[in-house]
Design brief:
Elements (H helix, E strand, L loop, with lengths): L2 H6 L47 H22 L4 H31 L8
Helix pairs in contact: 2-3
Bound molecules: zinc ion.
């Protein structure tokens, strides 16, 4: 499994086999941030230090920009009411929030932990 697949499939960054989250999938709307304590395969402790997941907010920030900037451009370029675009921004955030939070955490831990696939 390559790096991009490991990130999007929410796999352990070290072995790319164990799952990061207890409930699988990018669009899980319950238990969104419930994670395994450690990788069931290579036993990597996922919380590398106290407060480790705060950094994931920075990883999800560009994803939020990619999602919402087209609506902001729509507000500026269109003669329609800005409330329509703001409404779509709100709806898109509700729809994509689990994906954004989970991908943010997955990207963050993949940046921090090196792949050691052949060792496991
Ligand atoms: Zn692992």
């Amino acid at each position: 499994m390559n790096l991009l697949a490991s990130i999007t499939h929410l796999k352990c960054p070290r072995c790319r086999k164990g799952n990061l989250f207890t409930k699988r999938g990018l669009f899980s709307y319950t238990q969104i941030l419930d994670m395994e304590k450690e990788c069931p395969h290579c036993k990597l402790n996922y919380e590398l230090e106290p407060g480790f997941w705060l950094g994931a907010l920075w990883a999800s920030y560009p994803l939020i920009l990619i999602l919402e900037v087209p609506f902001l451009i729509g507000v500026l370029m269109s003669d329609k009411s800005p409330l329509i675009f703001i409404g779509f921004m709100f709806l898109s955030m509700l729809l994509f929030l689990p994906m954004l939070l989970r991908l943010g955490r997955s990207i963050w831990i993949h940046v921090q932990v090196k792949y050691e696939g052949l060792s496991y």
